[in-house]
Amino acid sequence: MNPDERAEAVLADAAALVCAVADQDQAEVARILTTITDWPALAVVLAGQVDDSRPLTLEVQAFRAEDRAARIIAKTAAVTRIPADLITSPARDRNTAAARAVAMYVCHLAGITYAASGRAFNRDHTTAMYAVARVGEDARLRELGQQIATDCGIQWRPVDEPDRSADRRFLTCACGTRTKHTTGVCPRCQEAAAA
């Protein structure tokens, strides 16, 4: 059997193993491992799924949103020097609220839903939405959040200004003025054309 055939033979078991590990189903992982006969082929198939642009670590990645949020809260606490229990507390002083907002922003960058983020901070999802918007408008807090996200190994992409060209409420006139007129011509240009 050539290497490609060997890899194809263990492909289904490799996929099932990955799913069982992601689901943290120890019984299913044990069952799958007892059926594997070609360990080198399994190793090749699994190694082929590794993203070579990211460093390999032995650190176990948290899959649940609550676990990822707790890790983000701990990292934010370390960077801001505000205790994690204070970040998740009802405290509303400026520094604590800013650290909480930054941590919620990092949770957003990590793909954690607003609802899950709100639960992690003992707050409502609308509070998480407001915090993300607040940090997005403050360059200093945004940079801090992006630094924490990078430190946590979160791959995020910079978010530019929203593209308003797709906004149906506004059209851009030939002169460059944004207008709500359905014709796409601003009142000033309409007056100039009529004259």
Q: Domain count, please report it.
A: 3
Strand order of the largest sheet: 1-2
Total helices: the number is 10
In terms of DSSP E residues, the strand content is: under 5%
At the fourth level of CATH, the homologous superfamily of the largest domain is DnaA protein, C-terminal DNA-binding domain
Shape call: flat
Low-confidence stretches: 58-62, 160-167
Q: Give the ordered list of helices and strands.
A: HHHHHHHHHEEH
Task: Put the structure in a nutshell.
The chain has helices at residues 3-22, 26-35, 39-47, 65-80, 84-87, 94-109, 114-120, 125-137, 139-151, 187-194, and strands at 171-172, 178-179. It is an all-alpha fold and 195 residues long. It folds into three domains: 3-47, no CATH class; 65-151, Orthogonal Bundle (Chromosomal Replication Initiator Protein Dnaa, Chain: A), CATH 1.10.1750; 164-194, no CATH class.
Structure description:
By secondary structure, this protein is mainly α. It folds into 3 domains: 3-47, no CATH class; 65-151, Chromosomal Replication Initiator Protein Dnaa, Chain: A; 164-194, no CATH class. It is 59% helix and 2% strand. It is built from 10 helices and 2 strands. It has a two-stranded antiparallel ribbon. Strand 1 and strand 2 (178-179) form a beta hairpin. Helix 1 runs antiparallel to helix 2 and helix 7 (114-120) crosses helix 8. The longest helix is centred in the N-terminal third of the chain and has 20 residues, at 3-22. The N and C termini lie far apart (84 Å). The model is unreliable at 58-62 and 160-167 (pLDDT under 50).
